[in-house]
Amino acid sequence: MKRKRVLAVVAAGLVVTVAAGLYWFQPWKLWVNETVQEALPVARTSAPLSESTAPAPKEPSIVATGELISHEHTTSGGVRILRAADGSLVLRLENLDTSNGPDLRVWLTDAPVVPGKDGWFVFDDGAHVSAGKLKGNKGSQNYTLPAGTDLARYSSVTIWCDRFDVSFGAAELAKVQA
């Protein structure tokens, strides 16, 4: 009788451990890709009266650009920060290709982009602004930055795994002269 009780406790403990591990690591994301294809954001200068008199959409201006490098996971693609006609800032990931993972975020940071393993953990050491959860691990997507974001304070973008405090990939931003 005592042996059955011990086995039951061990079995229950094993079930709890496996469930916690599945929740924490989310291993199925290794095989699941989420592709997001969003159009470049545009703004109309005024409300159109009719289709024939509608003003052409105004393209946003490019403020900064960068190319993603790999960190914890193989990552590639481009980053652009755009200023819309209304003054708002949009962080755009273009042709992103990275691994899926738990709790991935897009961060604008003040950390330098360091290649290799030395660059995996630096982005939460200083200032950062979260643009939100990563919408998909593949494709092109837009993230509106919070109002009042001072781009002079930030020099890089990272795809950050908040669950494990590690960068999947990052890009050094080069400011574009107007």
Quaternary state of this entry equals single chain
CATH domain class of the largest domain:
Mainly Beta
The coarse overall form would be elongated
CATH architecture of the largest domain: Sandwich
Organism: Amycolatopsis coloradensis
Protein name: Electron transporter
Pfam family, one: DM13
InterPro entries: DM13_domain
Short description:
The chain has 1 helix and 11 strands; from the N terminus they run αβββββββββββ. It is mainly beta. A hairpin with a 4-residue loop joins strand 9 and strand 10.
Annotate the secondary structure layout.
Layout: H1 2-25, E1 35-37, E2 61-67, E3 69-70, E4 76-83, E5 89-97, E6 104-109, E7 128-133, E8 138-144, E9 156-161, E10 166-172, E11 174-175
Parallel strand pairs: 1-8
Antiparallel strand pairs: 2-4, 2-11, 3-10, 4-5, 5-8, 6-7, 6-9, 9-10
Walkthrough of the structure:
Helices cover 13% and strands 35% of the residues. The chain has 178 residues and is mainly beta. The chain is elongated, with a radius of gyration of 21 Å. The strands form 2 sheets. It has a 6-stranded mixed β-sheet with strand order 1-8-5-4-2-11, with no helix packed on it. Strands 3-10-9-6-7 form a 5-stranded antiparallel β-sheet, with no helix packed on it. The chain has 2 domains: 32 residues; 118 residues, Superoxide dismutase, copper/zinc binding domain (Immunoglobulin-like, Sandwich).
List keywords for this structure.
178 residues, mainly beta, Immunoglobulin-like, 2 domains, 6-stranded mixed beta sheet, 5-stranded antiparallel beta sheet, 1 helix, 13% helix, 35% strand, elongated, Electron transporter
